[in-house]
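Exercise: predict the structure of this protein bound to S-adenosylmethionine.
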Amino acid sequence: MNSTQRDILRKVHDEARENYIMILSDECERVMRELFERYAPKRVLEIGTAIGYSSSVMALTSECIVDTVEKDAARVAEAEKLWKSLGIRDRINSYCGNSDDLLPDMVEGKIYDFVFLDGAKSSYKKQLVFLDGYIRQGGIVLCDDVTYLGLVKGNEKPPHKHRTIVNNMREFLNYVQTEERYDCEILDEGNGIAIVRKK
Ligand SMILES: C[S@@+](CC[C@H](N)C(=O)[O-])C[C@H]1O[C@@H](n2cnc3c(N)ncnc32)[C@H](O)[C@@H]1O
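Solution:
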């Protein structure tokens, strides 16, 4: 990453924080960068593009191709501007729509080294179960927001409006920690981060 790219990313990061635009936590970004430096993934899938911040971090940390999906067309337009300004537009395949509908076509015939789950928080388990066959052995699935407002820890009944997300996230965390075919590390940093490795 050159100094111009670093400055652009810093500005986007700071504006996103100031304007409460959802991008990954700083802790998750640090973990992401460390994983990218260690594994240098080539094929990456992201669910939840938002304004293209995390996909830019990934594309600038490893010479990878990123497939990313976002349901909000205005955010996709912002992301495209960002990728162009960073000179990485040709390494990002952007899909606009609901990930539930688009994923099957997006991933058809592909095998991913790295997956970043950062879209619909109640769908992580469903997404991982679907994606398992498209992740290579030794591939990493990084998941942000797994403690979801601190509500996922423990067994307390969640407030009604968060019930589905919290229950589904608990089920996801239980799944990745008990399934034989995954190693999983959960970090109680930021909004909770899960690093899942397919054995
Ligand atoms: C936390 S933000 C993603 C942040 C981004 N990964 C980053 O760090 O720069 C989550 C995004 O997922 C999108 N999203 C939520 N549910 C979705 C769905 N079912 N299909 C596609 N995108 C979805 C939201 O619109 C939102 O922009």
